Amino acid sequence: MISHTAAITIYTKTGERREMAEATPYEEQRRRQVEANKRKLEELQLHHLSAAIREAAAAAKPSLVKKRKARVPLDVADAVMEPVRRSGRLANLPDKPVYREKVPDFGMKIRRTYGSVRRDLTNRVYATDDARSYAISKAEDLEQELDSSFPIFIKPMTQSHVTGGFWLGLPIHFCRKYLPKRDEMITLVDEDDDESDTLYLAMKRGLSAGWRGFAVQQKLVDGDCLVFQLIEQTKFKVYITRASSYYESED
After folding, report:
1. Which residue ranges run through the membrane (predicted)?
2. Gap between the Cα atoms of 206 and 62, Å rounded
3. Exposed, middle or buried, 142 (CB in 10 Å: 0-12/13-18/19+)?
4. How far apart are CA 103 and CA 83, in angstroms?
5. Which of 79, 120, 129, 223 is most buried, by the most CB atoms less than 10 A from its CB?
6. CA–CA dist 104, 3 (Å, integer)
7. What is d(CA 241, CA 248) in angstroms, rounded to the nearest whole number?
8. Domain 121-250 carries which CATH code?
9. DSSP assigned state of 24
10. Euclidean distance between CA atoms 29 and 66, whole angstroms
């Protein structure tokens, strides 16, 4: 094997003789290259930059132990905490949407003496076809007897009118021709001249608040038929023909 070094004899200050290996041109060039690279690294200060990056990463690393938040009792939270709104545009909106039908204030209270009574829907009365037809026939006969100078319409009762929803839709043509164009209080007068106030919804063309109290008070059931006579601009005289009269007529 050929060696790339040669022996050099040197003498120390004490006169001691030593032999050192003389570097070849290749090793000398490699040594100079290493020193040059070292100087460049020192000029760039990469070791300081690397240490700074490690320190920043260690500082930004979140703690593995999560901080526990103090629990607030539900009743205290509901009483004290307020909902947070991130948008100023929504600041004036209500916390929860309200879908309940709002009754306009017309300066009078709707009679609710009977409106608070809830009917047992399991005890619904269903009229037979014969009884229903009989009530309608009697209502048509009554219509012929009433004063024709007052607008009149006939309305047979179904379950949605007298139980559950308690909503009474009125004939569209009648509403367009005779009833107000905006929401208005309408008075219903029964055959004993007792009055009940109801809310007429012009857009929906029907009676809403107050109709339930009237239906319960008059003990209306499925199959009954009503004759509405408009005696004033916002007042109906109401006549009732009962489906139950069908069974009395057979006796």
Report:
1. none
2. 64
3. middle
4. 28
5. 223
6. 112
7. 13
8. 2.40.330.10
9. P
10. 57
**AA identity, residue 67:** K
pLDDT in tens, the chain (251 residues): 444 455 555 556 566 665 555 567 888 888 888 888 888 777 777 666 777 777 777 776 655 545 555 565 555 444 444 555 555 555 565 555 544 444 445 444 444 444 444 455 556 778 889 999 999 999 999 999 998 889 999 999 998 898 877 789 999 999 999 999 999 999 999 999 999 999 999 999 999 889 999 999 999 999 999 999 999 999 999 999 998 888 876 65
User: Which pair of structure tokens corresponds to residue 241?
Assistant: 């023909």
Q: Tell me, yes or no, if the pTM score tops 0.90.
A: no
Q: What is the identity of the amino acid at 128?
A: T
Each domain of the chain, given as residue ranges in start order, spans 7-58, 121-250
What length does the chain have? Answer: 251
